[in-house]
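Re-running DNA transformation protein TfoX1 to confirm reproducibility after the cluster update. Everything else is unchanged from the original entry.
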Amino acid sequence: MLESFLESIDTHSQLKNITVRSVFGGKGVLSEGVMFALVKDDQLYLRASNAAFKADFIQSGCVAYEFNWRSHSRNYPSLSNYYSVPSDISHSMQQITTLAEEVWSTSHKIKLEKDTPTRIKDLPNMQYKTERMLRKAGINSIEELRELGPVNAYRAICLNQDKNPGVNLLYHIAGAIDGIHWSIIPENIRTSLKREVGTEFLAQ
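Result of re-run:
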């Protein structure tokens, strides 16, 4: 089943970077790092990516994959979020693959939504404290922070404090906007940032 399913994905879908890993006592199938199918004992299960998929699977009489959580003393049976293929398409690997691609698309969209920062504190280098400092300076969202840029954002914070917070905060903000850790900002970029900010905002 696993080999035929992988061949069908390659032939009938646009899914890329397919990988297989051991999970839940079976073999999980992933695309772009997002798992969407599970094969166990020659049986294929598809992920119920959201409530709508789960309802459809249940209505179609699909069976949830059951696995055991093991502890030192006993096994704990648990139902997964993966369901057997609907019987009305079980005869057609191409139709199964089409449904699997729809499942992956929804799962991938949900993952992107979860991975996309919604608050300043969720950006690299940022914390609650930094978020509060930016808000006091009138910068309340990631969009506003990106629009202002690191230099103007740092200046705004300085203007709202009695003491300048230090050049590292400038690097933290620059890294947050670029999505990187501040420590890997190249020295020439750091020099440029300090020059743009001006010495009056860097003095302690």
